[in-house]
Amino acid sequence: MSEQNSVNTGINAPKSLAWTMIVFGLIGWIGAFALTLERFHVAANPDAVLGCDLNVFISCKSVMLTPTARLFGFPNSLIGLAAFMAPIIVGFAILAGAKFAMWFWRLFLVGNTLGFIFVLFLFSQSLFVINVLCPYCMVAWAGMIPIFWHLFLFSAKEDIVPMPIRTTSFWDWAAARPWRITLVFELLIILAIVIRFWANWGPTFRKLGWF
């Protein structure tokens, strides 16, 4: 699709992308909202034991009290509360028949890419620096990952992100199967978590009464 045509008519995004942004935007927003409530709870009562504090390596409180949890001087969850509204709004706009220009999609992709990079940074910090997993944080991450991959693959197919001509067939193939790409990436994330905390899973499952 030419850029001139996209400026005049806008790019018609599929409803599957819209629903992905709405559903997973809501999931991410709920995770950020729950984490914000727990942060207020801890601020009011520093000795509080939160419902998401399961043990020494699965704990919201242990993560939210670290400098990483407030990189910009305020809780990261507040960023999520604002940021996850964007894909939800855009998704509903697409369902209502809206078509956005090339420049909008590029800016929107930049914003979501920054969010995705931020999630990867927080993930790496949890695994290798803080050494603790935050359940509500992971809910927010689970919302961000599908949104990014669906949007990126759509953008590659529609030439919103210019790709080499010889890779066109690959991006067409990938854009038709966004859930496969998303699933592979999420399985890699899960595998990294399982391996990193391998020694902790047995005691955790026994505490929960799973075996």
Automatic annotation (TrEMBL):
UniProt keyword annotations, A-Z: Disulfide bond, Membrane, Oxidoreductase, Quinone, Redox-active center, Transmembrane, Transmembrane helix
Listed InterPro entries: VKOR (IPR012932), VKOR_Actinobacteria (IPR041714), VKOR_sf (IPR038354)
Membrane topology label: Multi-pass membrane protein
Entry GO MF terms: oxidoreductase activity; quinone binding
One Pfam family matching this protein: VKOR
Record-annotated membrane-spanning stretches: 16-37, 78-97, 103-123, 130-152, 179-199
Location of this chain's protein in the cell: Membrane
Domain Vitamin K epoxide reductase: 14-155
GO cellular component annotations of the record: membrane
Main location (coarse class): membrane
Name this protein carries in UniProt: Unannotated protein
